[in-house]
Structures are given as C-alpha cells and as structure tokens.
Design a protein that fits this description.
CATH architecture of the largest domain in chain B: 3-Layer(aba) Sandwich
Shape of chain A: globular
Structural class of chain B: alpha/beta
Order of helices and strands of chain A: HHHHHHHHHHHH
Number of helices of chain A: 12
Largest sheet of chain B: 6 strands, mixed
Largest sheet of chain A: none
Number of domains of chain B: 2
Radius of gyration of chain B: 24 Å
Shape of chain B: globular
Number of domains of chain A: 1
Radius of gyration of chain A: 18 Å
Oligomer: heterodimer
CATH class of the largest domain in chain B: Alpha Beta
Strand order of the largest sheet of chain B: 5-6-7-3-8-9
Number of helices of chain B: 10
Distance between the termini of chain A: 25 Å
Chain lengths: 248, 301
C-alpha cells in the first residue's frame, strides 16, 4: 500500500510537470471557464444559475477524455509499461494510479470552479453541495473510465486524439451545456443522450440545484454511474486482452 | 560451469504461423556472464522475454533459480533484474523518483550504494527526458539492480552508445559479475561478447547454432590465424615457403601469412629471420575473431 501511495504521489507530481497534461487538466478548462463564464452569465439567467455545473462538466470531459488516454498510449508505445512490469508494477496498478491522479487533479479544478463562479460571475451555489460533489465524483470517474478505455484500445497517438474528439465534441455540443438540449433537432438530441455528459447535467440540475429536468435526475445519475462501471470493466478487460496477446 | 541457475529446455515460440524459437536449449551457471548472439530477428529478445515472463512460450520449460517465469511471477520479480531492449520511463519522472518508485515497489530501502557506485548523484534531480542516452542506460541498469537480483538480463544494453559510455557500461557489467550476479546478455556486438562473456550461444533461425566459450566458438571455425611480419633488412620474400602456412600478400614492407598452427609457423619464420642475420621490427599474430566465426555461421545457415 505504501508503494502504491508513493507511486500515486510521484504520478501526481509528474502530471504537474508534463505540459500536455497541465494543458488538458488545468489550463484549457480554466481559460474556457473564464471566457465562456463571462459569455454564459450574460446570455440567460438559467445558464447563470447552473454555470458552475456546466463549466465543471466541460472541464471534466476535457481533462479526462482528452488528457487521460495520451500518457497511457505513450507508455505502451515507448515500452514504459513493460519496464514497469518487469519491476513488479503491474499494468492494472499503472491504470489505477493514472485514474486516481487524474481524479485528484480534475476534482481540484471542479472545486476551483465551484468557489470562483459565484465570486466572479455571481452564479448561484447549488442547493445541495453534497449532491453537487457526489455528481462531480461520479461523472469524473465515468469520464476517466472513457479515457482509460481509449488509452488501452487506441493503437497510436493520432488515433487517440481522434477517439477522444469523437467523445468530447458531442459531449460538449449536444449535452445541453452550451445551449439547451431541447432546442436541438430531435436526432441530435437523441444522439446527445448517448453521452454521459447529458445525464450529468440533468443530475446537477435536478439533484444539486433542485431545478426541473427533462430526464429524471436520479435516474440520470444511475445511468452515469452505470456508464462509469461499464467503462472501467471494459478498460481493464481490454488491458487483460493486451497482456494475453503480448502486445504490451 | 557452476550449478545452473537458468535453464531453458526445448523452448518453442510461434508468432502466428511463424516459428521464432524452435527447441532452444541452454543453461547458465551461477555467476556466469552468458551471451546470446544472433542477427536481427533470430529470437534473442523473444528468448529473454520468455524468461522475463513477458511472453508465453508455446513449448518447453524455463527455470530461473528453480522458479517458473510463467507461473511464479511474484517470486521471479524478487530474483530477476531486467533491462529491456526498448525500455523507457515517463519523460517527466525525476531520476530520484524513479529510484524511489522501484525501490518501494520491490520493498527495499533507498539504494544509496548503487547511486554512488554508478555515479548517478549528479543527475538525481534531472527528469528522464533530460538525460543523455548513456545516462538513461546507466539509470535503467541501476533500476534493474535495486532488488539485488540473482540473475540480471540485459538486452542490448550498449546499443546506440558512444565509445566512452560503452566502455563505462562494460566496466559496470564486470563489477556486477564480480558481485556474483549471473548475467544474461543479448548483443549484436561481437567484441562486447568476446570481452564480457564467459560463454556464448549463437542463435540462428530459431535454433542454437553453436555454444561454448568465445575461444571455443572461434576455434571451431574455418578461420585461420593471421601472421604479419616486418624485418629490418627485408630478408624474407614472398616466395619463402613455410609448412602449414599460406602466403597471403606483401604490402608496405609487411609479409602476411595465414596458418592454423601458430606456434609452428612463428618458430619457422623467426628461425629464417635469424638465419639471415636480420632482425624483427614488427610481428603481429591475429587470431580469427568471433565476428569472423559469426559471419561464417550465418553464411553457412
């Protein structure tokens, strides 16, 4: 356990030193938050109300889906995973540490957004902070699960970016965080419902802000949690598959 | 050979329909430096990766200090140190962190002795991406030693290194051998194998084509020893015949012969020089190299 925690601490520090990770975890989400926060808070009162939630969904999706897979693919490509394995650090441990480190970084970003939103943009704090952060944690894990899955299925860096964009862009545009999902054409609205970001926004609105929602908020949260479990299972199964096929 | 600590029996490995290893057999004695030689794609790395537990053999048995790499991975990690052919660490990990990570994962205290012995101290605070190729190799070697392994596997440890770094690494491998650690070394570099290895095995087309000490391997070939002579007054000529030798050429005052019986040939040649009241200015005896023998085997296959 001590060795695992030591690895997690080293990984956390490595993430802060890595320019790409820093960009995906902190810089882009926070710059986007300040720019779009200014825009959103002046568009509609509803957007101002849930600003912290929408910006958190953006930050988490960006950081976890765009930022988590690339280091994993690089570790596979460069032989780092093999070097770790022959020294007793299993691939599962690597995946778990990457996931936990990403969780800590992105949770910190969510906390920053939570406290800065009311101060800078005069947005409302959620009615239930407990529900708010529970949703943050569950959605964060779901997105990290997607990131890990991409990290173990993508054969190279360019494919990784493509896979990440396939998840990130619809999550951003069709989930309702940029504009209300019920204003989208029906086909796009249903397409948006394939991504957990849609359900995360419904959960935030219903459970944390006590607003009315298109989809039942509790049911939405269960869907996000289910999605999270499925993604982690698939990621670890694929990792096992890679190991069996000696591709690592 | 001391009691075998590594034994490979009838090792078979296929990649799809391609048989890479076809009943490989060898044993490595405790404290030995054993070299695996062979051209690209011969199966050296695959053999080592089967021993490291990274690949699953299709047949045969492997043992490292009585431990089966396929079924006893946990025990294997405590007695094996590995430097892979294409090994890397995360770019942004610091040298001190890498040492800390690997030591803690192996459950051993920080190895300050290794840091000092391998001259790692000056770059402890550098990130992996900031190290030169030689420094990276040295670090990876140190990391392979943190658990005080009984067997160390080095897969082309000096590939891509400059002459100085290579010489340093050779010295370090000699020091490792002095500590009684068994070393399995895969290399392309024949001079390296000749200098470092107690015994070698040459793998060709998935089979061991020859094994023995470097001297035994070279002696078993068709190669002949080259004798080159220059005298003060040039008393010997190209037409001079010595039994058991073949005259090769005369170049810039040097006469060159090839022979299998070096002692007899040198005795005859020096006798002639003395009889002619001449003196030897330069005499060179060059035994056939491992490289020549290796090429002979490759061409024969």
């Amino acid at each position: 356990m001590k060795a695992f925690l030591n690895y997690l601490w080293i990984q956390f520090k490595m993430d802060l030193r890595d320019r790409g990770t820093l960009l995906n975890f902190y810089l882009v989400p926070l710059v986007f938050f300040f720019v779009m926060g200014a825009v959103f808070s002046s568009v509609t009162p509803l957007m101002k109300t849930t600003l912290a939630a929408t910006m958190t969904i953006f930050a988490i999706t960006m950081g976890a889906v765009m930022g988590t897979p690339s280091p994993l693919v690089k570790m596979r490509e460069s032989g780092t995973m093999r070097a770790f394995k022959v020294n007793g650090i299993s691939a599962s441990a690597i995946l778990t540490v990457q996931a936990l480190s990403a969780f800590i970084h992105l949770f910190l970003v969510a906390v920053i957004i939570y406290f800065v939103s009311p101060l800078v943009f005069h947005s409302q704090l959620p009615v239930s902070a407990g529900a708010y952060f529970a949703i943050v944690a569950i959605y964060l894990l779901a997105c990290i699960g997607i990131g890990l899955l991409i990290g173990v299925i993508a054969p190279n860096q360019s494919t990784t970016t493509m896979f990440s964009m396939i998840v990130f862009l619809p999550s951003l545009l069709l989930s309702g965080i940029m504009f209300p999902a019920n204003m989208l054409p029906a086909a796009l609205m249903w397409l948006g419902r394939l991504f957990p970001a849609t359900y995360a926004l419904q959960s935030f609105s219903g459970l944390a802000f006590h607003l009315s929602t298109d989809i039942n908020a509790a049911f939405s949260l269960i869907l996000v949690a289910t999605f999270c479990v499925i993604m982690f299972i698939l990621a670890f199964l694929q990792l096992n598959n890679i190991r069996k096929n000696e591709q690592m | 050979m001391n009691d075998p600590i590594v034994s490979v029996t009838d090792l078979v490995k296929h990649y799809g329909s391609n048989t890479v290893l076809n009943k490989i057999n060898f044993e490595v004695g405790a404290g030995e430096v054993f070299g695996l030689l062979g051209p690209n794609g011969a199966g050296k790395t695959t053999t080592l990766e089967c021993l490291e537990g990274l690949r699953k053999p299709n047949g045969g048995t492997l043992q490292i200090a009585g431990c089966d790499p396929q079924t006893q991975e946990h025990s294997l990690r405590s007695l094996l140190g590995v430097q892979l052919q294409s090994s890397a660490l995360p770019d942004s990990i610091k040298v001190s962190e890498a040492l800390q990570l690997f030591c803690s994962w192996h459950g051993v205290a920080q190895r300050d002795d290794l840091i000092e012995k391998f001259g790692i101290t000056p770059f402890l605070t550098k990130q992996f991406k900031q190290l030169s190729t030689g420094q990276k190799r040295r670090l990876l070697l140190v990391l392979a030693l943190v658990n005080s392994p009984r067997v160390l596997i080095l897969d082309e440890p000096t590939a891509g290194l400059d002459v100085q770094s290579r010489a340093q690494l050779h010295d370090e491998i000699r020091r490792i051998k002095q500590q009684g650690i068994t070393v399995l070394l895969a290399t392309h570099d024949m001079a390296e194998a000749e200098q470092l290895c107690d015994r070698i095995a040459i793998i060709l087309n998935g089979k061991i084509a020859f094994s023995g000490t470097p001297q035994e391997v070279t002696a078993a070939g068709n190669g002949q020893t080259k004798i080159t002579l220059r005298t003060a007054h040039g008393s010997l000529s190209a037409s001079e015949a010595f039994s058991g030798t073949t005259f090769v050429q005369e170049k810039e005052g040097y006469l060159e012969w090839k022979t299998r019986d070096v002692a007899e040939a040198v005795t005859q040649i020096l006798g002639k020089v003395k009889a002619a009241n001449d003196t030897v200015e330069d005499l060179r005896v060059e035994r056939p190299s491992l490289e020549e023998r290796f090429l002979e085997l490759v061409e024969g296959n």
